[in-house]
Amino acid sequence: MIAVRVRAPHSLEVIEADRAEPGPDEVRVKVSSAGICGSDIHILHGSNPFAKYPRVIGHEFAGTIAATGAAVTALSVGDNVVVDPVISCGHCYACRVGRSNVCANLEVLGVHRDGGFRSQVVVPAANAVKVSKSLPISVAALAEPFSIAANVLVRTGCDERDTILIYGSGTVGLTVLQVAKLKGARVIVADPDKRRLERAEQFGADRLLQSGKDDVPASVAGENDGLGPTLVIDGAGVPALLEEACRVASPAGRIGILGFSPAPCNVSQQEIVKKELTLVGSRLSRRLLPEVIGWLESGQLKPEAMITQTFSGSDAKDAFALIEQAPEKTVKVQLDFS
Ligand SMILES: [Zn+2]
Ligand SMILES: [Zn+2]
């Protein structure tokens, strides 16, 4: 049994780990597939403001129930599950209004608590979501990143009347693209990297813009009967793009912010009022994994091609080195702990 731990910033190690027994309301999951996320890289670099060290990282993982606590009735040994990494208190204001992802007492597995990059992990039973045996477990492990995309589109609203501009064609942009296509929207993706744009095309983007080469604001001005995009998603986290988003958005447009930059930005108040724009932040997901799993099980989402490389859990250092040294070759790198 092993675990992948960040001992301190810039120090990743694979350690021998003990097997913990689940408490009454917990289950022990034998982890099969776990995806590496940008926020894992941030914890490794010491740039995640929430992480405490040492920390077993990993929050995108799926596996099989190996043991259940005495009070657990909804899950059985042998069930395949995806784990929702968001643990919330259930009684603060955010929880009471259904926004458990911004709970005042929020804890995220792999950030505030030890996470899923390990052979076996004990989690609250309420966070384990059962998946069909017919769904490949590596695909099930993509449910968490898709729940991030689902959450921002719940916050902004999204349907077939929308023309969406997505800034960034990395994992976040590609997942938002696929959920937006499922909702019937027209989707434009802007990214400086041609290879990343080709991936967006592969996942159904209607139009591609190469930022830096194409003039993005001028290119989208004619969209939506000349009013501009109805919805802009900032998956890049660049303050200047948020300013641009407010300029290019259509009247009654919405802007979904996923980027996590601490830098202030110069958004025009006039732009927001004149067009009655709605700007919303989106963090993690509010219990949307069951809905996403439904899309995966029914084949409405077919994201297998997002998994670009798989490494054994014991080779985690090589996986992180690849993402750091050749990010253009990767979309989702997964670790296999089975
Ligand atoms: Zn993530
Ligand atoms: Zn709460």
From TrEMBL:
Coiled coil: none annotated. GO terms for molecular function: oxidoreductase activity, acting on the CH-OH group of donors, NAD or NADP as acceptor; zinc ion binding. Its cofactor is Zn(2+). The keyword Iron does not apply. PROSITE patterns: ADH_ZINC (PS00059). SMART domains: PKS_ER (SM00829). The keyword Metal-binding applies. Keywords: Metal-binding, Oxidoreductase, Zinc. It holds the Pfam family ADH_N. InterPro entries: ADH-like_C, ADH-like_N, ADH_Zn_CS, ER, GroES-like_sf, NAD(P)-bd_dom_sf, Zn_alcohol_dh. Signal peptide: none annotated. Residues 7-335 form the Enoyl reductase (ER) domain. Belongs to the zinc-containing alcohol dehydrogenase family. This is Zn-dependent oxidoreductase.
